[in-house]
Every structure is written in C-alpha cells, then in structure tokens.
Specification:
single chain; 299 residues; alpha/beta; two-stranded antiparallel sheet; 9 strands; 10% strand
Length: 299
C-alpha cells in the first residue's frame, strides 16, 4: 500500500470465497471467523482498513441472513462481498430475493467479484479462466441483476462491479440495440436497460489502462468509478503501473474541470478517494477522526 501511495484499503475475500466448503454449518462457521478476523484488522488499523463481510454460500440463505446481521450490527462491516453466481444461479435469480431485501433495508454496499460460472471454462491452459472468463461472468451477473429487477426493486443497495464491470460497458449498447423490448430483457426498452446498467458502480482493479478507462468514463454515471488494486492476485508491478495511470488521468480530469461548475470534484471526479468516501460513510468518519487526532497530537 505504502509503495503505491494507497492510504486505505477495503479488504475482501475473493473467489472462490467459501463455495469450496460443502457442509453448510462449516461454511457458516468459517464465514464468522473470516469476518471477525477482518474486523480485528480494521480495529487495529482503523484509518488503513475497512472490510467487506464474507457470506456462506448463497445455497444457504438463512445462514447468509444471519451473517449479514452479525456483520453489520456486530462488526460494523463496510459492505458485503458476493460472487457472480452460486450453483448455476446468477445474482438476479428469484431465490436470492430475501437476501437482496435485507441488504436493501440496510442500504448496503455490495461488492460483486467474478467466479467460475455454471458452464465449465472452455479454454486452453494458456488462457486461464480468471483472466479470460471472469470479465464475462461479471457481465452475465450484471445482466441477471437487471432482468431480475434487482437494481430497480432494491434501490437502497449500491452494487460495485469489479474490474470496470467486466465487459458490460463494451456490451451494453449491443445488448440494448439487439434485445431492447424483447422477452430476453423482460420487455424493457433498450434505453431502460442502459439506464439500469448505469446504476452500478465500477472499480478499476486490473482495468486501469487507457482503453478500458476511456470506455468506462463514457459509460458510467458520474461518481460511480472507484479505484481498485486486486492485491495480492495482481502483480505488484502491475498495481504500480495502474496506480500511476489513475493518478495521471485524475490529474488530467482535475485540470479539465477546474473552475467549471459541472459537479466535478477535486481528485479527478472522486475516482481516487472521494467516491469511495461517499460509499463508505463509516470509513470516512474514521479517517476524519484520525486526521483530527493527528492534528491534535501534532503529528
């Protein structure tokens, strides 16, 4: 973090999360241990870390609801991590409606990370799934949440799609133009599909390069792009290069919008810091308190 000028990070357990544990009771116990440990790291370093809580597999909804209650009410989690699919069901599946209702009630932030989908990866070993297939899985999950009305029925939930939304910014217009008004999109128009797609938030993990960033900047709503590193899965040299890119483009955005009354903030549309602080008010409070303490103590 220090090497790349990252002052604070939100911790999360990536794919496969706890889906490798077949026994539901064991998965619930493991989730509690993971979340308690993440909370302890946050408590030891309150201005350096927040965390997304891990859930047992969504094949056990009652256990997930119990862990959501404990994570938010007992541990003050900053949000929840979900995978793109569970046992062949993407996140817009009606089986998950009670989960979304609880998250909506809490105005929760949900971080969606891709995992291996219901169809086995049909790639050669030289084309590993996490590099080739994961972006497509994110898009499938996003479309599932749109046609399953998750983004409309649960507006209190703020959903972050990792890796710049996978291929969604590239595919969205194709989907809207070819499937708008069709049963595939549950008869919603192409314009409505695009409007729903822009309700998502997007992090820049493994995507902070000129081409993907330019596309995402055109697609995403203002205030809906955040920085992401994908550490420790991304190589450190890759993280450094992408962090430097984000600093550069946000400086350019500052220069372009400085003095213009268009809602732009310092920090290049809030991409480096401001948008995240809007998403995570508890983290913002801790950082503000930490800064006040440093000033008081003359640090």
């Amino acid at each position: 973090m220090d090497q790349n000028s990252i002052s604070c990070a939100i911790l999360s357990l990536s794919a496969p999360a706890l889906t490798f544990i077949q026994d539901n009771a064991e998965a619930a116990t493991f989730a509690r241990k993971v979340n308690s440990y993440a909370a302890s790291l946050r408590d030891q370093h309150p201005t350096r870390f927040g965390f997304f809580a891990t859930l047992p597999s969504l094949t056990d909804i009652p256990a997930c609801l119990s862990e959501i209650e404990y994570a938010f009410d007992g541990l003050d989690a900053d949000g929840i991590t979900l995978l793109t699919s569970y046992n062949g069901r993407y996140l817009g599946h009606p089986d998950f409606s009670s989960l979304w209702a609880e998250l909506d009630k809490r105005n929760a932030v949900v971080f969606v990370h891709p995992s291996q989908g219901p169809v086995p990866a049909l790639t050669e070993p030289a084309m590993p799934g996490p590099i080739i297939d994961f972006p497509h899985e994110t898009t499938r999950a996003a479309v599932s949440m749109i046609i399953g009305n998750v983004v409309r029925d649960y507006p209190g939930v703020k959903i972050i799609l990792s890796h710049a939304g996978g291929t969604l910014p590239y595919m969205a217009m194709r989907i809207a133009s070819q499937a708008g008004g069709s049963p595939f999109l549950r008869n919603r128009s192409g314009e409505d599909f695009l409007s729903d797609a822009r309700k998502f938030y997007f992090d820049l993990a493994l995507s902070a390069y000129q081409g993907p960033f330019d596309l995402l900047k055109q697609f995403a709503a203002r205030g809906h792009i955040t920085y992401g590193s994908d550490f420790p899965f991304a190589k450190n040299e890759s993280i450094k290069g992408q962090a430097d890119f984000v600093k550069g483009v946000t400086n350019e955005l500052d220069q372009m919008t400085r003095g213009k009354d268009d809602g732009a903030k310092a920090d290049g549309w809030g991409i480096q810091r401001g948008n995240a602080l809007q998403l995570f008010p508890k983290l913002a409070e801790r950082l503000e308190k930490g800064e006040m303490d440093r000033q008081t103590n003359g640090i």
